[in-house]
Write a structure and sequence with these properties.
With 404 residues, this protein is α/β, with parallel strands linked by helices. It has 2 domains: 155 residues, Aspartate Aminotransferase, domain 1; 227 residues, Type I PLP-dependent aspartate aminotransferase-like (Major domain) (Aspartate Aminotransferase, domain 2), CATH 3.40.640.10. Bound molecules: pyridoxal-5'-phosphate. It comes from Thermococcus onnurineus (strain NA1).
Length: 404
């Protein structure tokens, strides 16, 4: 039976990720018994996550909290929202009431729900160029048009943002919000400077736009400062999508959306029929994790130094083996963006690197909102071991030197 005719019109906006092909190819090679080094992950390191401690919490919660296997309120269990409100005040430097927090199925759930209540087909969403592919896809699925603003080592070019906004407004286009990952940006690994953060807030205020702050990497900062936009927000313009994924593990699916008012109300109404509630068992585990100070004990004190070491290993390896290449130097997040020489094909390079050298990387191109970025390669340092990073970069550099 031909089922295409049953698809809704909006199904035309649903596009698969261009990265699926890379991952499929890697899975095929692995199935054939090839051992691959992966620098392609979007995950933290399971060995830097206190799995046995979390296991004990899971056991305790399941045995002692009957509600943990039940439906709970759509906006999250009150105890977790209260704990999170204290946590954000302590570690992010801003105060929000538990009532403004909605616990979601990861940051992904937060962004999807927000998009659903903000985006009309044809609306413009401003992002960094490049930006996180899943967010681009989520907004496009709702009919948004993505306009990406170029970045440099200080984050989104706010001068170009202003120019672009004037152009769009002159054409009568409707811009709804600016989506940004200001800290440890995925895929660039760049952290927005304080000046740019101020400029961004000012521009949003002048043009009366919302800012959606994707805080996925706010807790993965190795040095320097990065005041959250929300902590600098004077007129309530910043909506936060946060997550414990990069801290506790991506499998728990615990994130949050911070927004009050009419938007918060609509998100909550939208949420019930979508997912009923974020995984209850994970919510109770997250509650105990935060309440017992495990964030500090295990993440800040043990996990972060481990990631920093791996970040350093990757940067050192790149500097040694590709001294002339251009790449970003992240102070936060999980990624380094490497640029092949101008005009080189990153997609083809990634394919060849996998086939010939057994190293999996993610081409940067699919993260770009326009035709640029063809020579970009996203490298992950959080998930592989130090040895894998060093060996992986060595082999990458071999291919690089063979080709360029
Ligand atoms: C990982 C990530 C998220 C959130 O992932 P969840 O697992 O759904 O919490 C959001 N934005 C960016 C940029 C990310 O890298």
């Amino acid at each position: 039976m031909k089922d295409v005719k049953f698809l809704a019109g909006r199904a035309n906006w649903i596009k698969g990720s261009a990265l699926a092909d890379v991952m499929k190819k890697a899975a095929e090679l692995r199935a054939q018994g090839r051992e691959l080094i992966s620098l392609s992950a979007g995950d933290p390191d399971p060995n830097l996550i206190p799995r046995s401690v979390l296991g004990e919490l899971a056991k305790e919660v399941l045995e002692n909290v009957p509600a943990s296997v039940m439906y709970t309120p759509a906006n999250g269990i009150p105890e977790l929202r209260e704990e999170l409100s204290k946590f954000l005040e302590k570690y992010e430097g801003y105060k929000v009431s538990p009532g403004e927090i909605i616990i979601t199925v990861g940051g992904t759930g937060a962004l999807d729900l927000l998009g659903r209540v903000l985006i009309d087909p044809g609306d413009i969403v401003i992002t960094e160029n490049p930006s996180y592919i899943n967010s681009i896809l989520a907004f496009e699925q709702l009919g948004a048009k993505i306009v990406g603003i170029p970045m440099d080592e200080n984050g989104m070019r706010t001068d170009l943002l202003e120019e672009r906004l004037r152009e769009l407004e002159a054409r009568g286009e409707k811009v709804k919000f600016i989506y940004t990952i200001p800290t440890g940006q995925n895929p660039m690994g760049v952290t927005m400077s304080k000046e740019r953060r101020k400029a961004l807030l000012e521009i949003a205020s002048e043009h009366d736009l919302l800012i959606v702050e994707d805080a996925a990497y706010n807790f993965m900062r190795y040095e320097g400062k990065a005041t959250p936009l929300k902590a600098m927000d004077r007129d309530g313009r910043v909506i936060v999508a946060g997550t414990l994924s990069k801290v506790m593990g991506t499998g728990f699916r615990i994130g949050w959306l911070i927004t009050g008012g009419a938007i918060g109300k609509k998100v909550l109404m939208e949420k019930s029929p979508v997912d009923f509630c974020a995984p209850t068992i994970s919510q109770y585990i997250a509650l105990e994790y935060l309440k017992r100070g495990y964030f500090e004990e295990y993440h800040l004190n043990k996990g972060l130094p481990g990631y920093k070491e791996k970040r350093d290993a990757m940067l050192n390896a790149l500097e040694e083996s590709l001294p002339d290449a251009e790449f970003t130097r992240p102070i936060a997040g999980m990624f380094v963006m490497l640029f092949l020489p101008e005009g080189a094909d990153g997609m083809a390079f990634a394919g060849e690197l996998m086939e010939k050298k057994g190293v999996v990387v993610v081409p940067g191109k699919p993260f770009y909102t326009d035709e640029s970025g063809g020579n970009a390669i996203r490298l992950n340092f959080s998930r592989p071991s130090k040895e894998e990073i060093e060996e992986g970069i060595k082999r990458l550099a071999e291919l690089y030197c063979e080709k360029f």
